[in-house]
Design goal:
Structural class: alpha+beta
Order of helices and strands: HEEHHEHEHEE
Number of domains: 2
Largest sheet: 3 strands, mixed
Number of strands: 6
CATH superfamily of the largest domain: K homology (KH) domain
Helix content: 40-55%
CATH topology of the largest domain: GMP Synthetase, Chain A, domain 3
CATH class of the largest domain: Alpha Beta
Radius of gyration: 18 Å
Mean pLDDT: 90
Distance between the termini: 50 Å
Low-confidence stretches: none
Strand order of the largest sheet: 1-2-3
Shape: elongated
Length: 147
C-alpha cells in the first residue's frame, strides 16, 4: 500500500524516484528510503519540510485506508541520520553550556521529533535535566542542571 501511494505521489509531483519500503524500529514502523539523485534537494525541501510532509501524508493515507495508525519514517540521501547527528551534537554542546553557566538553556524552533532526539540523548547525562515548555507552535525545550 505504501509503495502504491508513493508511486502515485511522485507521478503527481513529476519526480522520477525509486524507493524501498521495509520495516523499521523492530517491526514497529515503516521505513521508507527514497532514491532520487537529481531531485533529492527538492524532495528534502527547506529544512526537511517537504520530506516531513511526505512522511505525514503517507502516514495519514495509510491510516485512512487501513483504519489504524502506522508510524512512518521517510529518508532520502541519509538526511535523517545527518540531522540526528547534528541534534545529538547540539544537545551535548547545550548541556555543557548549562553546566558551565548553571543557567537554563532554551532551544527554540524544534519539531516534536527533534525535541524527542534531544530528550533521549540527554536522558542518561548525569546532572542534566530536559523538559519541554510552552504550547503548540510556541513549544520549546529547556536544558538545565539538576538542583
Amino acid at each position: 500500500m505504501a509503495e502504491e501511494l508513493l508511486q502515485e505521489l511522485f507521478i503527481l509531483m513529476g519526480i522520477g524516484a525509486t524507493f524501498k519500503v521495509g520495516l523499521g524500529d523492530e517491526g514497529q514502523s515503516l521505513a521508507v528510503t527514497i532514491d532520487a539523485p537529481n531531485e533529492s534537494g527538492l524532495i528534502i525541501g527547506y529544512h526537511g519540510e517537504t520530506l516531513w510532509a511526505i512522511q505525514s501524508f503517507l502516514s495519514m493515507a495509510i491510516k485512512q485506508r487501513k483504519g489504524e495508525w502506522v508510524r512512518v519514517a521517510v529518508d532520502i540521501a541519509g538526511y535523517r541520520e545527518k540531522q540526528e547527528e547534528k541534534l545529538i551534537e547540539l544537545a551535548k554542546q547545550t548541556a555543557e553550556r548549562a553546566k558551565e553557566t548553571h543557567e537554563p538553556q532554551p532551544l527554540y524552533n524544534l519539531t516534536p521529533g527533534q525535541r524527542r532526539v534531544i530528550h533521549l540523548t540527554l536522558s542518561g547525562e548525569k546532572g542534566i535535566e530536559t523538559k519541554s515548555e510552552g504550547e503548540a507552535q510556541e513549544r520549546y525545550l529547556v536544558i538545565t542542571v539538576k538542583q
